[in-house]
Amino acid sequence: MIQRTLSIIKPDATARNLDGAILAMIQEAGLRVVAMKRLHLSCEQAGGFYAVHKERPFYNDLCAFMSSGPVVVSVLEGEDAIAKYRTLMGATNPEKAEDGTIRKRFAQNIEANSVHGSDAPETAAFEIAYFFNALEIVG
Ligand code: RTP
Ligand code: MG
């Protein structure tokens, strides 16, 4: 099944100029970039994106981190794209991430973990619409 998922290259990764290396891993995995933009989110914009985590203890830190520098948001398309990208990212905590994953290679800690990917079709739909309109996605 061809799916779309939302990817964010997080501020820890853009700060280290890793956007290209991460996008290369994404493309090598067979996922297509069908939309992309570079943004510097406000704390409020990051908070709206992570609204599902509002009650979590790490929410305020996460909003501050996600607005601390530029991010690269993109829509990835491909067979089973949501699960495929989650596998490529690796575990949230890089100490538990498998070899060959983006987080194993690049993440600094459980918060500054270099990438985000949608975790289900419903969250992918919300997250894609948060950043892109229909004209900005070119399959
Ligand atoms: P993501 O949503 O970014 O793809 O990551 P995920 O599903 O693997 O992790 P999730 O549980 O949804 O948490 C979202 C992001 O919050 C930060 N976090 N910090 N300090 C902490 O204990 C903690 N736990 C999570 C990470 O940046 C995580 O990706
Ligand atoms: Mg998540």
UniProtKB/TrEMBL annotation:
Domain Nucleoside diphosphate kinase-like: 2-139
UniProt cofactor(s): Mg(2+)
Biological-process GO terms, alphabetical: CTP biosynthetic process; GTP biosynthetic process; UTP biosynthetic process
Keywords noted in UniProt: ATP-binding, Cytoplasm, Kinase, Magnesium, Metal-binding, Nucleotide metabolism, Nucleotide-binding, Phosphoprotein, Transferase
An example Gene Ontology CC term for this record: cytoplasm
Assembly notes: Homotetramer.
Summary of the function given for this chain in its UniProt record: Major role in the synthesis of nucleoside triphosphates other than ATP. The ATP gamma phosphate is transferred to the NDP beta phosphate via a ping-pong mechanism, using a phosphorylated active-site intermediate.
Name under which the protein is recorded: Nucleoside diphosphate kinase
